């Protein structure tokens, strides 16, 4: 049947080409399991443009099944924690953290401000409708010397004593300083070096501090043009598959606008990792921090 062969050949060739493209390492399938957003803010200025059904819808459509909620002020976290029916319906578990900031002014002085320490203790005693607070942060240290501030030191010790996870936006020098106050603390390093500290130095810190976990939003150099991990980062994640997590960092409303796109971006490079590693970074490492698995 020469005529049939003639008709089929281009189709077969096209199919083979498509198959080859599908198997190419440049385009692995995207990760399609659950995500744990370990760095989420629901700040006061987000709540009017993005009411609860809006943000929960964005999480649900993104396959985000748990969040670390920390908001300025803590009312935003409380709103998420209080919406038991809505979060359950969206399939989202809320893990509440105590934010150190009542307002923008607190960003730059919290580490030496005793009233912040008292606020943390009051919040801890108060708890949330979703259960007790599980962590402290996100806090910022724009000058790593402030990691030795009296309130920074006491909060690290409190976290270690009460088994609270710390979420810290700091540089590599501050990581060493914070762990010096509380060597057994568990600390999520927001952005894992947002200033672009070299990956070798990041690795050194991971080797030294077993309680260190890296959150990867905004990390410069993490991915390449094709959306996959840069080789050095892939190597580090494979070396420490239990020590990395993902997050949205919805610090401004624009991040809410692009929430689903952000999560799709994570799914692209997660898909390039071995399946078990992808699942750990996407979900299990976050769940393990809070005894959820
Ligand atoms: Zn943040």
From TrEMBL:
Amidohydrolase-related domain ranges (all copies): 74-291
Keyword vocabulary terms for this entry: Signal
Keyword Signal: yes
Taxonomic source organism: Caldimonas mangrovi
Signal peptide: 1-26
Signal listed as a keyword: yes
InterPro entries (alphabetical): Amidohydro-rel (IPR006680), Metal_Hydrolase (IPR032466)
Protein's name according to its UniProt entry: Amidohydrolase
């Amino acid at each position: 049947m020469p005529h049939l062969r003639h008709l089929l050949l281009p189709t077969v060739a096209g199919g083979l080409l498509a198959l080859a493209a599908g198997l190419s390492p440049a385009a692995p399938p995207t990760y399609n399991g659950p995500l744990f957003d370990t760095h989420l803010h629901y700040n006061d200025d987000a709540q009017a443009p993005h009411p609860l059904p809006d943000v929960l819808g964005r999480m649900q459509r993104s396959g985000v099944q748990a969040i670390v909620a920390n908001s300025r002020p803590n009312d935003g976290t409380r709103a998420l924690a209080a919406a038991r029916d809505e979060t359950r319906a969206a399939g989202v578990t809320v893990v509440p953290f105590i934010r150190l900031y009542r307002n923008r002014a607190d960003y730059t002085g919290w580490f030496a401000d005793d009233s912040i320490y008292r606020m943390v203790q009051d919040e801890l005693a108060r708890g949330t409708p979703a259960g007790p607070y599980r962590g402290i942060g996100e806090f910022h240290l724009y000058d790593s010397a402030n990691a030795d501030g009296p309130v920074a030191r006491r909060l690290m010790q409190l976290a270690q004593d009460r088994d609270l996870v710390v979420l810290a936006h700091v540089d590599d020098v501050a990581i060493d300083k914070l762990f010096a106050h509380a060597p057994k603390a568990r600390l999520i390093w927001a952005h894992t070096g947002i200033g672009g500290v070299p990956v070798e130095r990041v690795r050194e810190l991971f080797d030294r501090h077993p309680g260190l976990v890296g959150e990867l939003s905004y990390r410069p150099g993490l991915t390449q043009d094709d959306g996959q991990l840069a080789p050095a980062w892939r190597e580090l994640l494979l070396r420490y598959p239990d020590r990395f997590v993902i997050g949205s960092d919805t610090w401004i409303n624009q991040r809410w606008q692009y929430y689903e796109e952000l999560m799709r971006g994570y799914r692209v490079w997660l898909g390039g990792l071995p399946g078990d590693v992808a699942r750990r970074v996407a979900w299990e490492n976050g769940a393990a921090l809070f005894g959820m698995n």
